[in-house]
Amino acid sequence: MVCLCAGLMAARVQGIPDTMPLRRFVLSSALVLSASACTGNIGGADETPESAAAPARVRRLTREEFNKSASAVLGSSVDVAQGFAAEDTILGFSTHERLQVTSLLADQIDTAAVTLAEEGRSRLSDLYACPSGRSQDDCAKAFIQKVGQRAFRRPVTAEEESDLLALFNAGKQGGTMATGAELVLQALFSSASFLYRTELGPTTGRKGQVVELTPYEVASELSFMVTGGPPDDTLLAAAQAGTLSSPDEREKQTRRLLQTADARLKLRQFFIEWLGLNGLNKVNKNNQVYPDYSVEFRDSMVRERNAFIDSIVKDHAGSVKELLSANYSYVDETLANYYGGLSRTGVDDEGMGRVTLPPERLGILTQAGVMSTYAHFDSSSPIKRGKFVLTRLLCRTVPPPPANVSTIPPALSEDSTTRERFAAHTSNPACAGCHKTIDPMGFGMEDFDGLGQHRTEENGHPVDASGGVVAPDGTITAPFTGGAQLARQLATNDELANCVPLQFVRYAMGRDEHASDAELLAAMRTGAYRTDELKVTEALVSLVRSASFTQRRLPTR
Which part of the chain is the DUF1595 domain (predicted)? Predict the structure, then answer.
């Protein structure tokens, strides 16, 4: 058996007096622990090599997933989790499996449960209303089963129904059906079964055994991966029918969900987090160096990022080749002028229109938002830009600098270019090894300043934007000059093509690659993804069809 390190429900009836007013229920202290399956070697004949499948686990909902899950319960959109403590990131992604419930977050969830229960009392009145001729217990049970399945993303068990019914009856003593329903909703929203989603398989599994996830776990895994929210009625019906064990059915459901607005937003978030652009709305620049910078300018960069990625997702099925090599973008008047007085077409109500980019710009890599993100407060940064290409786009590891080496950028100088200053700064023998790989990538984007403006001169000196794509063995395999040429090189780079599926696994599965993922990654890197413009949606389909998607190894401890 696998023990779950969080209680089944956080709220339980404990001698509630008849006249007790609705109050907050404190979350189980176990929820402050990280979500994980209990471990500890007990031995047993069913032990399987660790490479057979990724470990069983439970995963905490992110803020966005919490909002979508609560919205599914109430039947209308809510945004109560926006004020929760922000997720940290691992490997660049906020969707990782190590999200915890701190004391602060537990209090915030407790408060949110009260707020959501109050909203649910009015929004769900038709579900708990009890017509004459029907017992209130029957009505309460029907309500519990309906909203409980929405909250837990699976049918409510008999034990859970009994507990929730007791809570419902305690709430309506001296009150009404509405107060009973409100108390049940509060318990559901503060329950571990709402806050966590499990990947544990059937309760009959033996320690160390590789198990198939239950149909409802598969439905949740698929839905959260594609839409960022809980399964809809169609997917739950497929789980109930037992058809999700078929790769063809999982592909069918995935392609159906990919047509939804939620799926497009989920894919947008993948591109934003993969490229490290989630902090763009907080980018700040020195106005003395970059007089064009303002909060409004920063907002324009965010709008371009979102509109361009949305077009790649909607019109090109998330094609990475199109992302890198598109000769167009979507900008407002501010950026159209900044990019050289470009003419916009199809301007929408928000002032966003399509532009044909000048030859020095290509795809997302040369957007002002990307160049600004990978730059300093008052200058460009060849090191940040080179590391960005190596780690985010090519999936290489760049070791941290030696402890005795200063990481402070070289001082600004009007007598030299940024390239000249950084070349001297990184010539230290202790740094040279890494910078032989980093610098050719970063120096090749020096035709853009720290705010993403194209330039041919800096401080009166010609800008040298020559660079090269450096192979893992240290050789320069693809010389280039300028960010647009780099983007063109990367769009056909095999290393990048292999990196994207790995980054998507990290984002979608919430973990780094596992030994058992070799076959999965091979499938994602070939097939329709590789032959059809590196479409992320095709890599996603390969993922949901794989055994790695539905199998987990139970702990041996």
Answer: 139-199
Query: Would you say 33 and 5 are in contact if contact means Cβ atoms under 8 Å apart?
Result: yes
| Closest residue by Cα to residue 29 from 13, 16, 10 | 10
Number of domains in the chain: 2
Residue 548: what pLDDT? Answer: 93
Q: Are residues 183 and 304 in the same domain?
A: no
CB-facing half-sphere around the CA of 166: CA atoms within 13 A = 12
Residue 24 has pLDDT above 60, yes or no: no
Round the average pLDDT of the chain to a whole number and report it: 89
pLDDT in tens, 448-464: 999 999 999 999 999 99
Q: Domain end: 176, 195, 214, which one?
A: 195
CA separation for the pair 351, 331 (Å, rounded)? 8
Which tens digit of pLDDT belongs to each residue from 279-303? 999 999 999 999 999 999 999 999 9
Site of tokens 């004459």: 132
pLDDT tier at 45 (50, 70, 90 boundaries)?
A: very low
CA distance 424 to 408: 13
In-domain check, residue 499? no
For helices 536-545 and 518-525, the axis angle rounded to 10 degrees is 150
Copy the structure tokens of residue 534.
């590196």
User: What is the end-to-end Cα distance of the chain in Å, rounded?
Assistant: 10
Is-contact 548 49, C-beta < 8 A?
no
For residues 186 and 302, state if they share a domain. no
153 lies in the same domain as 286: no
Q: Where are the alpha helices (DSSP H) in 471-555?
A: 483-491, 494-509, 518-525, 527-531, 536-545, 547-550
Distance CA 239, CA 262 (A): 20
Please state the separation of Cα 278 from the chain's center in Å: 10
- What are the residue ranges of helices labelled H in 75-176? 103-123, 125-128, 136-152, 158-172
Q: Domain boundary at 195, 224, 253, which?
A: 195
Residue 446 sits in which domain range? 280-403+413-491
